[in-house]
Amino acid sequence: MISITTAELNTLLAAFLWPLSRILALVATAPIFGNPSIPIRVKLGLATAITILVMPLVEKSLPPIDPASGAGLIILMQQAFIGIAIGFVMRVVFVAVEMAGELIGLQMGLGFAIFFDPHNSGQIDIIGRFLGVIASLAFLAIDGHLMMIALISQSFGTLPVGFEGTTEGTLTTLANWGGEIFKSGLQLSLPVLTVLLITNLALGVLTRVAPQLNIFAVGFPLTLSIGLFVLALSMPFFAPILEHLVHDGLNLIMGILSINKINMP
Predict the structure, then answer these.
(1) Is residue 59 situated within a structural domain?
(2) How far apart are CA 122 and CA 130, in angstroms?
(3) Backbone angles phi, psi at 123, to 5 degrees
(4) Where do the H-state alpha helices sit in the chain?
(5) C-alpha span between 121 and 167 (Å, rounded)
(6) Euclidean distance between the first and final Cα of the chain, in Å?
(7) Inter-residue long-range contacts of 245-249, CB under 8 Å, 24+ positions, other chains counted
(8) Of the ranges 116-125, 211-220, 238-247, which is most confident?
């Protein structure tokens, strides 16, 4: 007959619940993994599978604390915050891309072409949605999803489960990274915005020269056509900037978790 003591049971629960909270928080908030179209059972199954694989590494560095105690609940919330922070870093990349699409869409005259985005529980421009899909495909193409799994797995060695976790410097770094939304969003949309600005200035001069010209009948098709044309021309230059932005996010995560190198699975 197999007998398990209370201490052994608490150790097994701690070795499973604490890592699960960190991994599940990442799966729920990270791009691709956190997509609402993915069933909750699949997300929970993926988080559970990764947790079972990392349990042998976690058991060696667990603090002697009852997971059902107050201190255990604090550790549980702290692990969830670490996972949310990692997912937030990569989420900023995709929000920056979608913001670039919204800026382009507004200048093209597609501000009315919006629809509900269940992922962000809000409305999004059609160009922003298009660039978001491109960003998702590029993220998968460079194995970004595998890199995130490798990072969260290695984080238990560099940032073990315990009271020592995020610091004030980490929170400041995450807050500063949020500014990347506006910086990268403007950088990605700048070529199209510049051409559309010149187009609008030309239309303004044309209106002054020929007041009888119906600017609404001419301006909208012209700005829409030029915007789509320049967007198509700028797509080859869009990929390197996006890849650089993704790698910056991964490097930031590695810095937060004190990981020097990613060991791909």
Answers:
(1) yes
(2) 16
(3) -95, 150
(4) 6-29, 40-58, 70-108, 126-141, 144-158, 168-178, 180-209, 215-256
(5) 30
(6) 38
(7) 245/93, 245/96, 245/180, 245/184, 246/90, 246/93, 246/138, 246/139, 246/142, 246/144, 248/180, 249/89, 249/90, 249/92, 249/93, 249/177
(8) 238-247
Q: Is residue 13 part of a domain?
A: yes
Domain that holds residue 208: 6-256
Residue 105, domain member (yes or no)? yes
| 193, two tokens | 């915005």
Q: Is the dihedral of CA 215, 220, 225, 228 positive or negative?
A: positive
The number of distinct structural domains making up the chain is 1
Q: Give domain status of residue 165, yes or no.
A: yes
Supply the pTM of this predicted model: 0.80
With beta carbons less than 8 A apart as the criterion, state whether 31 and 86 touch.
no
Q: Which residue has the tokens 């929970």?
A: 44
The tens digit of pLDDT for each residue in 126-154 reads 788 888 888 888 888 888 888 888 888 88
